């Protein structure tokens, strides 16, 4: 039997995890991991956190360096853009070469959404998606006194916190009435607003603004004249290669629950994939956990090894000294029980007596328990849960 080849387009977190998991699961064939960035695969979360505020370097967040790739027999091609896909011939083309594949894994991630109109300000503008962006942000912070962050989602708030920790005056502009409104429940948004206000960040939510030469004009006519701008208005999936090859796309590469595209020999994983849910809706997850889970799931399918048990979705964010964590579903619960207050609080979303979702601010230990309950479908005693004097572990139903 000829040696099989898995070609992975995109050497970010999902691609690297998939390549390593293939070897771990006993794949004997050739693995080619091709990424357009000049770096070995690295994890992005610290780009808006300690890579900017200090304490971590790119080497610290590298997942698969050249030596490790070689030892695993993974052919790692950096600075290599995959520019063409011929599905009939099962070939991909790069700038310099073409490669045949038996399985193709698309792991092309996303790019920062452009901020329309910002050029009018004439100010330096940075978004945070790649290692170079973090370097640029660090340099701007070092030479500036103030910044306006456009976008009050996770990334915007993290970047704002990093700038504030470096001593800058910080304004955050968010179109929605509250920060992280797309995914966080109102109580969590409120806690985040309080955290940022307490640390001296001016958060402008729900108000329009316009770019003007030299800065930003708020709807109430207040003029902001920051030294530079950060664009943090979300990402767009890199699905152009897939779309050009006739694969289904819908703000991402459409996959089923097992990350299979409309072509049986092609998978899509991580941020570039959009999964069709049982109700027909489509969900794109942009998280560290999803990059890992999808990379591993595809390696299991290619090697014919059992898939790991599904785990509840979870996500974290670090802002100032606060750790924010969310898991499960935070929408549509019958009952929401809040424990704690201020900078240490946790919410339990219950339906039918079972936990369907939870979030925590600086309650990392209790959050571990909540994730376990979510995975096990544990029934909880709402009255004990609501009584903050009861230890959390005593709150399961008899
Ligand atoms: C600043 C920042 C902070 C984050 N913080 C958190 C956090 O706190 N918690 C959390 O859960 N998640 C966080 N995330 C999200 C998490 O990092 C992403 O979900 C994860 O990186 C997705 O991995 P990926 O491999 O799908 O995409 P990526 O890591 O983006 O990798 C995709 C790679 O493919 C390459 N590529 C694209 N097109 C091509 C092509 N045609 N040919 C070759 N290569 C190509 C890209 O250059 C890139 O290197 C953060 C993300 C960012 C940007």
Question: In words, what does this structure look like?
Answer:
GO terms for molecular function: oxidoreductase activity, acting on NAD(P)H. Keywords: FAD, Flavoprotein, Oxidoreductase. Residues 314-395 form the Reductase C-terminal domain. InterPro entries: FAD-oxidoreductase/Apoptosis (IPR050446), FAD/NAD-bd_sf (IPR036188), FAD/NAD-binding_dom (IPR023753), FAD/NAD-linked_Rdtase_dimer_sf (IPR016156), Reductase_C (IPR028202). This is Rhodocoxin reductase. The chain has helices at residues 13-24, 50-53, 66-72, 131-142, 154-165, 186-198, 240-244, 288-303, 364-376, 382-386; strands at residues 5-9, 30-34, 74-77, 82-86, 91-94, 98-100, 103-106, 110-112, 125-127, 146-150, 169-174, 202-205, 209-212, 215-218, 223-224, 228-231, 235-237, 253-255, 266-268, 273-276, 282-283, 314-319, 322-328, 335-341, 344-351, 354-361. The longest helix has 16 residues, at 288-303. The mean pLDDT is 95. It has three domains: 5-46 and 58-111 and 235-303, FAD/NAD(P)-binding domain; 114-231, 3-Layer(bba) Sandwich (FAD/NAD(P)-binding domain), CATH 3.50.50.60; 321-394, Enolase-like, domain 1. It has a five-stranded parallel beta sheet with strand order 3-2-1-7-19. Strands 9-16-10-11-12 form a five-stranded parallel beta sheet, covered by helices on one side. Helix content is 25%, strand content 29%. It has 398 residues and is an alpha/beta fold. Flavin-adenine dinucleotide is lined by residues 9-15, 34-37, 44-45, 47-48, 81-82, 107-110, 128-129, 155, 238, 241, 270-272, 286-289, 291, 315-317. Residues 9-15, 34-37, 44-45, 47-48, 81-82, 107-110, 128-129, 155, 238, 241, 270-272, 286-289, 291, 315-317 line the site of flavin-adenine dinucleotide.
């Amino acid at each position: 039997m000829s040696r099989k080849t898995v070609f992975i387009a995109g050497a970010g977190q999902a691609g690297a995890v998939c390549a390593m998991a293939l070897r771990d699961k006993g794949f004997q064939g050739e693995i080619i991991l091709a990424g357009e960035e000049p770096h070995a695969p690295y994890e992005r979360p610290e780009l808006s956190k300690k890579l900017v505020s200090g304490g971590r370097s790119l080497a610290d967040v590298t997942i698969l360096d050249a030596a490790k790739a070689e030892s695993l027999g993974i052919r790692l091609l950096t600075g290599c853009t995959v520019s063409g896909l011929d599905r009939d011939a099962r070939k991909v083309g790069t700038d310099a070469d073409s490669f045949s594949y038996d399985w193709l894994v698309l792991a092309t991630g996303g790019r920062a959404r452009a901020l329309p109109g910002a050029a009018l300000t004439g100010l330096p503008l940075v978004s945070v998606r790649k290692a170079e962006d973090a370097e640029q942000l660090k340099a701007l912070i070092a030479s500036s006194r103030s910044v306006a962050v456009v976008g009050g989602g996770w990334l915007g708030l993290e970047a704002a916190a990093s700038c504030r920790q470096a001593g800058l005056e910080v304004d955050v502009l968010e179109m929605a009435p509250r920060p992280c409104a797309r995914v966080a429940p109102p109580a969590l948004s409120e806690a985040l607003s309080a955290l940022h206000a307490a640390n001296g960040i001016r958060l402008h939510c729900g108000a329009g603004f316009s770019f003007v030469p030299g800065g930003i004009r708020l709807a109430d006519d207040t003029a902001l004249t920051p030294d530079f701008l950060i664009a943090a208005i979300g990402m767009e999936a890199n699905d152009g290669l897939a779309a050009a090859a006739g694969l289904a796309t819908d703000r991402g590469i459409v996959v089923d629950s097992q990350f299979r595209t409309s072509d049986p020999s092609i998978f899509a994983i991580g941020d570039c994939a959009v999964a069709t849910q049982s109700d027909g809706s489509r969900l794109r997850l942009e998280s560290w956990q999803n990059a890992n889970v999808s990379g591993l799931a595809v390696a299991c399918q290619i090697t014919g090894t059992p898939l790991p048990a599904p785990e509840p979705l979870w996500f974290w964010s670090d802002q100032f000294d606060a750790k924010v964590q969310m898991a499960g579903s935070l929408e549509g619960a019958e009952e929401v029980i809040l424990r704690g207050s201020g900078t240490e609080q946790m919410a339990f979303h219950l339906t039918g007596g079972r936990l369907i979702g939870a979030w925590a601010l600086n309650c990392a230990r209790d959050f571990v328990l909540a994730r376990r309950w979510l995975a096990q479908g544990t029934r909880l005693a709402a009255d004990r849960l609501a009584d903050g004097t009861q230890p959390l572990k005593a709150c399961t139903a008899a």
